[in-house]
Specification:
By secondary structure, this protein is mainly α. It is built from 3 helices and no strands. α1 packs antiparallel against α2. The protein is rod-shaped, with a radius of gyration of 27 Å.
């Protein structure tokens, strides 16, 4: 549902955009945290499930901080892109509508005569 002003034109409500962005970022944060928790559990669980001679003795299996930072940055960027996509689509729709009104004006809609049958 789009908000409409008194002239019948669609406009973007900044509070709505902020709410949608906060929801997207919150979902991305929860998803990234769940992924990190699952990775931490898997790092501890998987080596205990495999036979001891599979991994060399000098190998250390642990979570990598740069990889976790990359994952966090990627989840934030994904949330921003997909959170803003509907708003940007509506913004371009509003801009196109305003440009149409600038080019053709409201007169094209209001100057025609009403030819209804009586």
């Amino acid at each position: 549902m789009r908000p409409w002003n008194s002239n019948g034109r669609c406009f973007l409500d900044l509070a709505l955009v902020q709410q949608l962005m906060m929801e997207s970022l919150l979902l991305a944060f929860v998803g990234a945290a769940a992924g990190c928790l699952l990775a931490g559990i898997a790092v501890n669980l998987i080596p205990s499930l495999v036979p001891p001679d599979v991994f060399p003795a000098e190998s250390v299996i642990e979570l990598n901080a740069p990889v976790l930072a990359f994952t966090a940055a990627l989840s934030i960027m994904t949330a921003l892109i997909f959170g803003l996509a509907p708003d940007l689509r509506d913004l371009t729709t509003v801009q196109l509508q305003r440009k149409y009104e600038e080019l053709f004006g409201q007169a094209s809609h209001s100057n025609h005569k009403d030819y209804r049958l009586r």
